[in-house]
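[worker-b] picked up task from shared queue
[worker-b] task type: protein-ligand structure
[worker-b] ligand name resolved to magnesium ion; SMILES cross-checked against name lookup, match
[worker-b] sequence length check passed
[worker-b] input payload:
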Amino acid sequence: MFAIGLLIIGGYIVNYIEIPPHAPALMESTRAIGYSLEAAVADIIDNSIAANASEIDVCFSPYELSPYVSILDNGHGIDPDRIDEAMRYGSQSSLDVCGENDLGRFGLGLKIASLSQCRCLTVISKSRGILSASRWDLDEVNRIGKWALIQLDKEDIEQIPQYKTELDKST
Ligand SMILES: Nc1ncnc2c1ncn2[C@@H]1O[C@H](COP(=O)(O)OP(=O)(O)O)[C@@H](O)[C@H]1O
Ligand SMILES: [Mg+2]
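[worker-b] inference finished, payload out:
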């Protein structure tokens, strides 16, 4: 069930098993660590600043059928081949590279700040003209018990509120 391998520790060969966290337990517990709405939004804006954004729009739409908060920035975005890594709990890039504007460190903020306030996080990025998007849906993760990061295609992205007004711009 778990991946197995061998390690050399102090000259001895040791067996190990790889034991990743249970997704529903980790996602539900990290969303309950006590973020206020303000701190959650600030953590996401921190990412926008780290991405050299000069404009950040925060929009609350509480009266929709599915109420949402959107945070849009004009920073450098996320490469299509990096977006899934950015969505990973404990995403790798933060420990490797940390720019001087960057308060992020542990590769968690985007996920746990967002999901502290809602049960569905969608990240959409346009980088080098290519749109990409993925989504954590806590109810789906609970239902199937896996780290199931949902991949959105162009049609899915077009259904997202603000797609036409903001995301379909050429840059
Ligand atoms: N607004 C954004 N613009 C560009 N990249 C972003 C943005 N938000 C998040 N990212 C990318 O996603 C990664 C994960 O973000 P996060 O979970 O907040 O962890 P951290 O900030 O500690 O790296 C960041 O390292 C960055 O590469
Ligand atoms: Mg961050």
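[worker-b] attaching auto-annotations
[worker-b] The first helix runs from residue 23 to 30.
[worker-b] releasing lock
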